[in-house]
């Protein structure tokens, strides 16, 4: 039977594509100061450093490919109505073929003028544009002359797409969570919006910080975990 599946993903789903996670040992936040490169204060203090950080992430993404977990998530669309809610700023879900994706924390391949998309104006992505895997440099300006910034939600900023994500989780028949440490809110609290009888599957090789009798923890890496998940929901 066709089900509504909400899939919340984090850095772990892209780990087997060679993209570093944030909080594992060797993760990005071991080598960079998160306040410097991923907060609105860091951007105000030293925008050049922030641009260099995201230029490097974009370059890494150019040579990464979707892995079997991204492909299996996209493959769920064959039989189900699937919405991916991702904290990842990479484009590997798109490249794997998923068609409904909510990027909670923005997108690496996009930039926008600094004065665009303010919540006060009603959130719109009209000024956002694609730069692919290219770089942006200090002083680069958008069509209206305003300074360009990465289209990323930084610490200290609102998460405009969270309300859409909540609606998707509320309506889901199944919630699948893959490769997130569930440390960063509001994404980490999304599972609480699942219906009281909605099963929640979590794929992560490590312990998960949430305890709820609806949760089935598949303690595997994303690729192997997705094989198991597909087996479970197809009754194999
Ligand atoms: N398969 C599945 N899960 C994995 C794998 C793998 N191969 N490798 C690691 N993991 C798990 C880790 O055990 C951990 O629980 O992925 C999770 C990664 O957690 P984080 O590094 O904290 O990444 P994430 O949860 O996506 O971070 C959330 O924090 O800094 C911000 O904006 C950034 O979107 C990011 C947010």
UniProtKB/TrEMBL annotation:
InterPro entries: DHS-like_NAD/FAD-binding_dom (IPR029035), NAD-dep_sirtuin_deacylases (IPR050134), Sirtuin (IPR003000), Sirtuin_cat_small_dom_sf (IPR026591), Sirtuin_class_III (IPR027546), Ssirtuin_cat_dom (IPR026590). Pfam families: SIR2 (PF02146). It is an enzyme of class 2 (transferase). It comes from the Bacteria. Keywords: Cytoplasm, NAD, Transferase. The active site is at residue 105. One of its GO terms (molecular function) is protein-malonyllysine demalonylase activity. Its EC number is 2.3.1.286. Substrate binds at residues 54, 57. It is found in: Cytoplasm. Residues 1-236 form the Deacetylase sirtuin-type domain. It catalyses: N(6)-succinyl-L-lysyl-[protein] + NAD(+) + H2O = 2''-O-succinyl-ADP-D-ribose + nicotinamide + L-lysyl-[protein]; N(6)-acetyl-L-lysyl-[protein] + NAD(+) + H2O = 2''-O-acetyl-ADP-D-ribose + nicotinamide + L-lysyl-[protein]. PROSITE patterns: SIRTUIN. Belongs to the sirtuin family. Class III subfamily. NAD-dependent lysine deacetylase and desuccinylase that specifically removes acetyl and succinyl groups on target proteins. Modulates the activities of several proteins which are inactive in their acylated form. 2 residues (Tyr-54 and Arg-57) present in a large hydrophobic pocket are probably involved in substrate specificity. They are important for desuccinylation activity, but dispensable for deacetylation activity. This is NAD-dependent protein deacylase. The gene is cobB.
